[in-house]
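During the no-cost extension, the postdoctoral fellow (Dr. R.K.) reprocessed legacy sequence entries with the updated structure-token encoder. One reprocessed record is reproduced below for audit purposes.
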Amino acid sequence: MLKNVYLSLVLPLLLIGCTQQFVGEQEPIKNEVKTVSWDTLVSTVNTGAYQSVGQQHDKTVRLVLNNGQVLQAKEPNIDDIYEVVKNCKKCANKPFLTE
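Re-encoded structure tokens follow.
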């Protein structure tokens, strides 16, 4: 009986402690989209320091950086971002998404 009481008191405390440790170690998800100028977005693309880039029908271009941050801008003309990526040597083999 004492063993059951001990387990019913100690086990929940251990589980709470383990759960808090794992939750505390996780990095926050960076899902905020930051709107920047077209020139800023192009300059950032040309560094090659991003995970993926994509364009939408409304000429919105979204760039996911290596740290998870998302930048967006309106391209002047549809497919302008395609030309930027095509002419960027550091952008080889990076995902390009389009609608």
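The helical segments are 2-25, 38-47, 80-86. The beta strands are 33-35, 50-55, 60-65, 70-74, 96-98. The remaining legacy entries will be reprocessed before the final report is submitted.
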